[in-house]
């Protein structure tokens, strides 16, 4: 029981750290893609098929990034269920929903 109480903030910190990192990297990658798209669109010598290839590549990259996030989020959920049990995980998620709802209602 004591180990679970110690692990809960650690797991939460790892989850928040990943989400923060992922949002930062995603923003940076999205901005880089926009800049590259702008640059490629202004060069008249670039064939249309190369522009389409770049667009497909960035779409594939974004889908892969989102898929990676889903897998890691599922890993965190699994990790929480193993450490804290399904009941505790559901209680924590319900409390998060209640606090979000109550914050929104009070605002």
How would you describe this protein?
This protein has 107 residues and is an all-alpha fold. It is built from 2 helices and no strands. It has helices at residues 2-42, 48-106. It is elongated. The model is unreliable at 97-107 (pLDDT under 50).
Brief account:
With about 110 residues, this protein is mostly helical.
Total DSSP helices: 2
User: Are there runs of 5+ residues with pLDDT below 50, and where?
Assistant: 97-107
> On the 0-100 scale, what is the average pLDDT?
81
Report the principal-axis shape.
Answer: elongated
Span from first to last CA? Answer: 36 Å
Largest sheet: none
One letter per element, helices H and strands E, the order comes to HH
Provide the helix percentage: over 70%
Strand content: under 5%
Please report the total strand number as a whole number: 0
Structural class: mainly alpha
Radius of gyration: 21 Å
Topology:
Layout: H1 2-42, H2 48-106
Helix pairs in contact: 1-2
List keywords for this structure.
mainly alpha, 2 helices, 93% helix
């Amino acid at each position: 029981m004591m180990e679970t109480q110690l692990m809960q903030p650690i797991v939460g910190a790892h989850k928040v750290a990943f989400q923060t990192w992922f949002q930062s990297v995603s923003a940076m990658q999205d901005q880089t893609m926009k800049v590259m798209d702008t640059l490629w669109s202004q060069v008249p010598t670039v064939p249309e098929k190369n522009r389409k290839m770049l667009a497909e590549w960035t779409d594939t990259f974004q889908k892969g990034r989102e898929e990676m996030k889903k897998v890691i989020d599922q890993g965190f959920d699994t990790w929480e269920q193993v450490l804290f049990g399904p009941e505790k995980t559901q209680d924590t998620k319900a409390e998060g929903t209640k606090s979000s709802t109550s914050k929104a209602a009070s605002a």
